[in-house]
Write a structure and sequence with these properties.
The chain is built from 15 helices and 23 strands. The protein is of the alpha+beta class and 520 residues long. It has a domain of 106 residues: Lipocalin. Strands 1-3-2-15-14-13-10-9-8 form a 9-stranded antiparallel sheet, sandwiched between helices. Strand 16 and strand 17 form a beta hairpin. Helix 1 packs antiparallel against helix 12.
Length: 520
Amino acid sequence: MPHVSSSLNVAATGLLCLLPVISSSAADVALDTGVSSDIPLDEDALLAAVEADMAALGATAMSLAIVEDGRVVWSEGFGTTRRGGSDPVTADTRFRVASTTKPMTSIALLQAVADGCLDLDDPVADHLPFAIDVQPEHSADLAVGHTLANTGGLLDYELQTGQEGDGYLEPFLEEFQREGGFLAPPGRMYNYSNTNFVVAGRLVEVCTDQPIRGYLEDAVWGPLGMDRTAFDQATVLSDDDYAEGLTELLEESGGDLMDVGPSTYSAAHLWPAMGAWSSANDLAALGTFLLRGDDAVLGSALLDDMKRTQVDREEGDDDAGYGYGLKTRTGVDLGGARYPVRMVSHTGFLFGYSAHLYVFPELDLAVAALVNVDFAFPGESLDVALRLGDRVEAQAIPDPEIDPSTFEDFVGVYTHPYVLGDFVFSVEDGTLQVEVPSLDAEGIGYASALVAVAPDNFDMQLDDGTQRLSFLRGPDGSVEFVRNRYYVGERTAGLAAVTTVAPVPAGWLAGTTHRDLPGW
């Protein structure tokens, strides 16, 4: 077994041509006379929207697929697979889909539940060795269901290590137990962490006695017709039909736009969380399954649980939650309007790639979009593709109801003994202020004044980016924690002396927000 890195780090051009290419596989049956919906698709408007999005985003490759009435009714690729190249992108061209892998892993683990190997309420430690060395008090409370709902409380880990191949989940988790840990008590709160899904993937391996890659090929991708979805570089490179990404975020880019492909970076221990390559047509097949189900893949009761809100994200939006490997919403903001409609979704962003899968169960509608640039939201294309304004009565997007009188509720010292240490909050002239000794010690600049963005939610401005801080209340309404993806501080009694300085995770060093898209 190749060695796992011995130091855990909590990580993180112009349009050359626009060539729409209708895919030759999943979309064939749906492209005879156009869409089947009573609400017609304006294809000219969609092509213009794609062109505008690609130009605005600096993308050279994009693909899009629309599902209506249980089938793919439109799918196309745009641009070229290589910057400056001539091979056209199709709806079957592979892109990295990053965290859009999570619903796939969730299906696999729920299959293990259906087969009776485990239960969602089981402690993880009943099925595989799991005990965090420095926090044994939390280890026994980590349940199987926590991993799929992102409520495990585990430190996030997203470092690309170059590992490629099967067999890396077990040694990674062994090392994580020695050098990683919990940010929060398991089950207490939603906090997005890739490590949750590494644990979920390892549980699948233990239940099925095979590597997660082979199991997904046999039990998820194969039955759903997702034959363009893969983890390994060799498969992606085998036919050369993949889009190279464009990024400035990798350290080796030197701040210049860099082409990235299957061999540029990898991390096989993160496959269940963020490792898949896929196509617009394959994500559309996944969307069709989420809409219509398939008892041969997963029973309807567990599929409904997957799509049901399991935890409130507590990000200042009453209608935003998380199911099992899926984000959930009951209100969607798009094109300057809010639509009161239920949506389950997942997005994925990873060095040079952005992936989107949005599913609307009551509308029998889904859309998949892939773009070859970082943190790209093709909003105009999604607006035209979904036609929500023709399906649902639009509402005005409400302004967040921020009450400055509540800021006193947050005053105090919050601490984590192993990650970032103390955060100290005070109120000056009606503004919430923060002091972080660990950031000061590292010379990381930040603005002490926080910006209120939603009830109990604030943006903290750093020299290299923005971090969202969410204050979490207990049953009696008192504030118990301050949460960030890479830090959770528990409130201590009163304004104690500042004493705890702890290592700064790489997610803060990079200043990356990894924030959900507004209204999505």
